TrEMBL record, chains A, B:
This is TetR family transcriptional regulator. InterPro entries: DNA-bd_HTH_TetR-type_CS (IPR023772), Homeodomain-like_sf (IPR009057), HTH-type_TetR-like_transc_reg (IPR050109), HTH_TetR (IPR001647), Tet_transcr_reg_TetR-rel_C_sf (IPR036271), TetR_C_27 (IPR041478). Residues 7-67 form the HTH tetR-type domain. Keywords: DNA-binding, Transcription, Transcription regulation. The keyword DNA-binding applies. It comes from the Bacteria. The keyword DNA-binding applies. Residues 30-49 bind DNA. It holds the Pfam family TetR_N.
Length: 198, 198
């Protein structure tokens, strides 16, 4: 058993849970496996996460949050003009998803199973992302470069219209030649749709 | 056995194949089942469709073509202005897909299995649909109401940006409250992106 001298934090449990999921697969991985890998009793794990479902929800959120944090920086960067921010935000989202899907396909597949079971966690994740987008759209409206009656509605439309480039159901398409050009064409159309006019 | 006096046409075989698929499911349905339902020998079926794969491809194409034909009429209607035609074309596509998915969920699920195996047939279907859209976009450019450097690229971007409202992978979303409003918001953004400006 590995040494247990390190303090058992929620983050340590989640990092180990990810490794256990990778090794055993989402169907077989148990809390006992996680505790064994940490060299602690399963009771110690349950003190941080009351149920297996809660642990799986937390590890899924951690996986999704890795993308959210990168994007938050772009959304909050008031120095850059809103149109560049929208483009960069979506390019970063697409890049992060492609990297996750292509760089470690097994872990990606594992998390797709978890994501399918975690409707609430996924819903919160999407709400957070469209919230970031709403901030950018609102900044563009305030600056007079975007037209949108309701920034939140426009942000949701932008997010849904770009699903091909971030919805994991399309992961296979992300490896196809020409997908970059397709992404640019969709972004061009959407950004033109956002621009203000008289 | 039903009477065989009627001429054995490709269309009769395909209509019966659809019924057999509905009854037995896509995994179990065989050419012998189709021949039996028609009251003919399986050799008679093979004279129209050389292989089981060819028969399955043809029945899938027939299913997909039902949508294409309705849309072709909208795309070709030069009387209506291009913006109204784009909106109506996508509304008809969404309505047709929702009708197929919601009206006969079992048959829809059956065809989703076939569609998954028929990459070439599906590719041709999508090429046909984006071809129709290209005609509408080009008419708009010619009339000076749309701006698009390349109508075919814009048409593909429109089609991909609306995937949520016609890609069968989203069929469950089509029953959610608010989906109509989401569709309208995406269409508003896209149509504004198409419009010409100085």
């Amino acid at each position: 058993m590995p040494p247990t001298s390190e303090t058992l934090t929620a983050e340590r449990i989640l990092a180990t849970t990810e490794e256990v999921l990778r090794r055993h697969g989402p169907a077989k991985a148990t809390v006992v496996d996680v505790a064994r890998a940490l060299g602690v009793s399963h009771g110690s794990v349950y003190r941080h996460f009351r149920t297996k479902a809660e642990l799986r929800g937390a590890v899924t959120k951690r996986w999704l949050d890795r993308t959210t944090q990168v994007l938050a920086g772009i959304a909050a960067d008031g120095e850059r003009d809103p149109e560049a921010r929208v483009r960069e935000w979506f390019a970063a989202l697409f890049a992060a998803k492609r990297h996750k899907a292509g760089g470690d396909p097994e872990l990606f597949a594992t998390y797709q199973v978890l994501v399918g079971d975690q409707g609430e966690v996924v819903g919160q994740h999407i709400a957070e992302l469209t919230g970031q987008l709403t901030d950018i759209v609102r900044a563009g409206v305030d600056a007079g470069v975007f037209t949108a009656q309701d920034p939140a509605t426009a942000a949701r439309a932008l997010f849904q219209a770009t699903g091909r480039f971030h919805d994991p159901g399309y992961a296979q398409e992300w490896q196809q030649p020409g997908v970059e050009g397709e992404f640019e064409a969709v972004m061009d159309l959407l950004v033109r749709g956002l621009r203000a006019r008289d």
